[in-house]
Write a structure and sequence with these properties.
single chain, binds S-adenosylmethionine, about 35% helix, alpha/beta, two-stranded antiparallel ribbon, Rossmann fold, globular
C-alpha cells in the first residue's frame, strides 16, 4: 500500500496545501513514526511554522491515540525575517512589526481535524522545555537553524526522549554546499552520545531511536 494511503485523506490534503518546508516523503515518515511512538508518550515538535509538519505528525499521533505538542514562538527563524531568503510577506504583521504564523497554524489544524490532538504552545523552545518533564514518545526538531538554536534544542530536548522513542531532526545536509550545518551537527552529537541508534534517513530527515 503506498504510504500516503495510511494517512487520513482530509489531513493529507491540508498538509499538501499548507505553506512550509517539508517534503511529502519526509512528512509520511514522520506520520508513521508518530503513530508508532504515540503509545510510548507525548510527541513534541519544535518549529511548527504554518503547520505543514504538524499535520503529518499530528495525523500519525491521532492514529496512534496520542497527543502532539507543537512548540513555536511563531516569530520566524533567522532566514524568515524581512529581507532574508525565506521571508514570506504574507506572514508579516505590520501592526506588531513582527512575523506571526500563529493565525495560520490555527486554521491549518482546524482544517485538518487535529485541534484535539495537536496542541499549540506559543513559546520559545527553551521555555517550553522547562514545562515538559514526562518521557516523550518522539521529539521532532525543526526550529531555529543557527548553531546556537540547534544546540539549544538538542540539549533541552534529546534527553527527554523515552527509551524506545524517536529523535527526528530535519534538514541534514552532509554536503555543506547544499545547506546549513547546524542540524547535522546535533544529529552527529546524538550519535556520538551513544544514547541513540541510527535508523535510515528519509531525504534530509534524520531518525534516531533512543536505546
Ligand atoms: C523551518 S520553520 C519550521 C517548518 C515546519 N516544521 C514546516 O513543516 O513547515 C522553523 C520554525 O521554528 C520557529 N523557531 C525558531 N527558533 C525557535 C525557538 N528558539 N523557539 C521556538 N520556535 C522557534 C520559527 O518561528 C519557525 O516557525
Amino acid at each position: 500500500m503506498p504510504s500516503v494511503d495510511r494517512m487520513d485523506p482530509r489531513a493529507l490534503e491540508v498538509a499538501r496545501a499548507c505553506k512550509g518546508f517539508l517534503d511529502e516523503e519526509e512528512g509520511m515518515r514522520l506520520h508513521d513514526l508518530a503513530r508508532e511512538c504515540a503509545p510510548i508518550g507525548p510527541i513534541v515538535e519544535i518549529g511548527s511554522y504554518c503547520g505543514k509538519s504538524s499535520v503529518y505528525v499530528g495525523a500519525g499521533t491521532k492514529a496512534g491515540g496520542g497527543t502532539l505538542l507543537c512548540v513555536d514562538h511563531h516569530r520566524g527563524n533567522e532566514e524568515q525575517q524581512p529581507g532574508e531568503l525565506y521571508h514570506d510577506p504574507d506572514l508579516f504583521d505590520p501592526e506588531q512589526g513582527a512575523m506571526d504564523s500563529l493565525r495560520i497554524i490555527r486554521r491549518t489544524l482546524r482544517d485538518a481535524g487535529l485541534e484535539d490532538t495537536a496542541l499549540l504552545l506559543v513559546s520559545s523552545s527553551t521555555a517550553a522545555a522547562r514545562l515538559v518533564t514526562v518521557p516523550l514518545g518522539m521529539v521532532f526538531i525543526d526550529g531555529g537553524h543557527s548553531f546556537e538554536a540547534a544546540q539549544t534544542d538538542y540539549e533541552r530536548w534529546a534527553g527527554k526522549v523515552a527509551h524506545g522513542g524517536i529523535l527526528a531532526i530535519h534538514d541534514l545536509f552532509p554536503n555543506p554546499d547544499e545547506g546549513g550545518q547546524a542540524p547535522i551537527t546535533i544529529y552527529r552529537q546524538a550519535i556520538a552520545s551513544e544514547l541513540f541508534d541510527e535508523l535510515p534517513t528519509t531525504k534530509t530527515l534524520g531518525v534516531l531511536r533512543r536505546r
